[in-house]
């Protein structure tokens, strides 16, 4: 008999999958454990932008200064709008994963972005 996985508590999607001790929803990128806690907030780390405003998954931010990109002759220009960020465990100081048009999937540091209020 095959065990059924729970629907996503955030968007009620049935397409959840198990990753170690966590459940993940590929539809809204929500992660939680079997006891209902969000895995992203398990370590209580708060990631803040350049102005000290708390960032969350899915926020829209702008880049506050020109950024050189390794392996590219182009730079990410100041004022570039980045939609739908995903907060991750810091790797070399990069704690945001996002897609930037013309560059693709890239990691950014929270210290070089500013949250846009909706």
Concise synopsis of the structure shown:
The protein has 118 residues and is mostly beta strands. The chain has strands at residues 17-19, 22-24, 31-33, 61-63, 67-68, 75-76, 81-82, 86-91, 94-100, 104-108, 113-115. It is built from no helices and eleven strands.
How would you describe what is shown here?
The protein is mostly beta strands and 118 residues long. It folds into two domains: 1-44, Single Sheet (N-terminal domain of TfIIb); 61-115, SH3 Domains (SH3 type barrels, Roll), CATH 2.30.30.40. Helices cover 0% and strands 33% of the residues. It contains no helices and eleven strands. A three-stranded antiparallel beta sheet has the order 1-2-3, with no helix packed on it. Strands 7-4-11 form a three-stranded antiparallel beta sheet, with no helix packed on it. A hairpin with a 2-residue loop joins β1 (17-19) and β2. The protein is elongated, with a radius of gyration of 16 Å.
Structural class: mainly beta
User: Roughly how much helix do the residues carry, as a percent range?
Assistant: under 10%
CATH architecture of the largest domain: Roll
CATH topology of the largest domain: SH3 type barrels
Q: Could you state the CATH homologous superfamily of the largest domain?
A: SH3 Domains
Number of helices: 0
Q: Spatial order of the strands in the main sheet? A: 1-2-3
Radius of gyration: 16 Å
The H/E string reads EEEEEEEEEEE
The CATH class of the largest domain turns out to be Mainly Beta
Strand content: 25-35%
In total, the number of domains comes to 2
Outline type: elongated
Number of strands: 11
- Global mean pLDDT: 85
